[in-house]
Amino acid sequence: VLIDSLSGPLMTAAHSSGKIARYQVLVGGLLLLVVPLSYLLLYWGYQPEVVYWVSIAVSCLALFVRLFIISPLVRLPISLFLHRVLLPVFPVVLLSLCPAIFFQQFFASEGWKFIFTNLIALSSAILAIYFVALKSEEKQFVAAYVRKRLKRTKQN
């Protein structure tokens, strides 16, 4: 889902350029490979989780194919996209997943494990986004927005 959400603006840019035939053929064809690749790996005896890994790998590949196709159409330097979009995502993902993975071992019940692991992942993602991914101007905007909302709830 994260990979696809990073692709959204690239898809919009492709559609706005008016030159989407090549984009649709390459990216659509690539995404269709998930089904036969997953089937083949399942046929060869891999565990069902392999379907998720195939989907993630193909989505990552599709993101880069999108980037290489769209970059010249909208004059978006690939290095700029990598530096401003992809690079900040990696520490956020790591800082979100590591605490969740660590703390899930302390819960015996599957129900509680699911709830608390997701709460920990969400909390650590919010903190990681704020402290790692946002620039100072963006942090100021978020802080002002939160203060405004808190004042509004105190008045009610």
Overview of this structure, please?
The structure is a single chain. Helices cover 85% and strands 0% of the residues. The protein has helices spanning 2-17, 21-32, 34-43, 50-74, 78-103, 110-133, 136-155. It has seven helices and no strands. The chain has 156 residues and is mainly alpha-helical.
Tags for this entry?
7 helices; mainly alpha; 85% helix; flat; 156 residues
Provide a short characterization of the protein structure.
By secondary structure, the chain is mainly α. It is 85% helix and 0% strand.
* Oligomeric state of shown chains: single chain
- Based on Cα principal axes, name the global outline: flat
Q: Give me the number of helical elements.
A: 7
Number of strands: 0
Classify the helix fraction into a percent range. Answer: over 70%
Unreliable segments of 5+ consecutive residues:
none
Please report the distance between the alpha carbons of the first and last residues: 37 Å
Q: Please give the largest β-sheet.
A: none
Radius of gyration: 20 Å
Strand content: under 5%
Helix/strand-derived class? mainly alpha
| Mean pLDDT across residues | 88
Order of helices and strands: HHHHHHH
